[in-house]
Amino acid sequence: MANKKRTALKTSDGVSDSKTINKATLSQLKSKRSKKLDTAKLIEGILNQNIIDLSRAITLVESTKSSHQKKANIILKACLPHANNSIRIGVTGVPGVGKSTFIEALGKHLTALGKRVAVLAVDPSSSLTKGSILGDKTRMEVLVKDKNAYIRPSASGETLGGVARKTRESIILCEAAGFDVILIETVGVGQSETAVHSMVDFFLLLKLAGAGDELQGIKRGIIEMADAIAINKADGDNQKAAKLAKVEFNRALHLYPPKPSGWTPKVELCSALEDKGVVSIWESISEYMELTKTNSYFETKRNEQNKYWLLQTIENQLKSDFFKNKTIKSALKEQLKLLEHNETTPFVAAEFILGLDKSI
Ligand code: GDP
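# guanosine-5'-diphosphate complex -> structure
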């Protein structure tokens, strides 16, 4: 007992002549130092364009462990002043339309121009499908070996909000690591296009001709979001159908009101496989950038996107904290039962549960 007291006194006084204290203090100091060193080393590595450090930092961003998230936040804060200098391009389309092939062709063209290209993916389904996009890196065989390209397979995650947050933060890290063009791939089947649209400067929709969905099956919203529509696989026997699809899409685009960017969306033909039309799409993107930087829409849009993500993050966090709470969980279960037995209404039940939140 007496010994313990002495030890405690020594600790608070910072005197460390006891072996136990020495060990404990040393390991504490070490862990503090290693935390500092870790993040400082990663930040330095990212700014020096070290891909291994960039990957490690993205892994921290993607982690759900709170100690990793803390480190990730330190790194992100340090990287922010060095971010924002890239062109962010969203590439969407149904599975099989040729997104990977297109990104490989565009990526190769860009690295040949001396640009550094990062490819990220937003795929909320990846945890279920074990990574349906970018999961198989060999799909971009050439780009993956290019030292000026960085390909990061899709972040896995249970919610779109979570995956989108991770991707947005990864964009910042890639920009700090000096990438000039960030390509963000997403599958055009769900809500992920909206998430991607709100984190990119230019949104490219890949379509197929003759898939029977020129004007019916496609969601209005996606067309409205697109800054360009590329009809891919415009090669071989498919060329005639592709040209027809181009006319149809152009006609459809005319039905939409002018975009606040002042840009008129384009419909282009391309063959990612034969590397045809890809350069012309890049020229359109460059034209768009020039226009929106001149009319300051570029900056306005990025500001709006930041505000959107701030609110989105708060909303996600509040929701997740709320539904994780034990009292809320059991109350919700109870209220659902009452609802099933017609003993309450959805609104009364909701009011009751939300009222609990205030008293917690
Ligand atoms: P993703 O699922 O959208 O990423 O599509 P992929 O890039 O994996 O392509 C799906 C299939 O379409 C592959 O077999 C590609 O070789 C093929 N493909 C992609 N682009 C073209 C193209 O321009 N022309 C033709 N004929 N085939 C293509």
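# post-check
The CA atoms of residues 198 and 305 lie 6 Å apart.
Residues 1-18, 127-131 have pLDDT under 50 and may be disordered.
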